[in-house]
Amino acid sequence: APRAVIFDLDGVLADTAVLHRAAWQQLAAEIDAPFDEAIAERMKGVDRMGSLEILLERAPRRYSDEEKAGLAARKNARYVELIDRLDPRHLLPGARAAVESVRDAGLKTALASASRNAPQLLERLGIAGLFDYVVDAGRIARSKPDPEIFLAAAAGLGLAPTDCLGVEDAAAGIASIHAAGMAAIGIGQAEALAEADVLLSNIAAFDIGRITTTSGPSAR
Ligand code: BG6
Ligand code: MG
C-alpha cells in the first residue's frame, strides 16, 4: 500500500492552469507567435523556460538568451499579478478535502510543482500547512517529464519512490511520475492522460480509500 501521495499544484489543486495559459497567450500575441490548444497542452507541467521554448518554436524570428530571459520575466510578471488576487475560493472543488483525506488516512503528502510561484500560491490558497514536504522548484534542474522532481519529493519525505503515488493533470507530469517508478493518477481529460494508471475527471473524484485498493506499484 502507498505511504504517501505527491500532488502537482497547477491544474490539480488550483485553478491556475488557465492563468498560466492566459499569460503565455498574451505574450504570444505580442511577439506574433501562433498559440493554440495543442501548444497550451504541451506547456502544462513544463517549467518556465521550457514553456517559452515551446512558444518560440513557431515564432517568426529567433531570440537571444538575454531576450528569452526578458520574455520569460514578462510572462511571469503577468502571472504573478493574476495569482496575487487569489484566495482559498480558487482551490479547485474538492482539492482541500482530497489532501486532507490523504493525511487522515495516515499517509504523507508532498507537493511536486514545477512552479517557482508555488510557495506563495499555497499561502494564498490557505493549504501550505497540509504538506509534509514541498519541493523547491528552483533546485530542480530537469523539467517534467524527467523524474527529478517526483524523486526529490519522495526523498524529501524520506520514502522510496515505490511507496508514493503521484497526481497530475499533464502528460509531461504523468511521464515524470512513471519515470520515477510511481503509479500515476491523472486528473482531467483522457486524451492528454492516456498513460495514467487511474484517470479521474477532477480532483473532487479523488478518494484515497478507493485508490489504495485499485492501484499502486503492484498494479502496474
Ligand atoms: C507548472 C505549470 O506547474 O509550473 C506550467 O503547469 C508552468 O504551466 C510551470 O510553466 C512553471 O511555473 P512558474 O510559475 O515557475 O513560471
Ligand atoms: Mg499541472
From TrEMBL:
GO molecular function, one term: beta-phosphoglucomutase activity
Keyword field: Isomerase
Transmembrane residue ranges: none
Family recorded in the similarity comment: Belongs to the HAD-like hydrolase superfamily. CbbY/CbbZ/Gph/YieH family.
Protein name, per record: Beta-phosphoglucomutase
Organism from which the protein derives: Rhodanobacter lycopersici
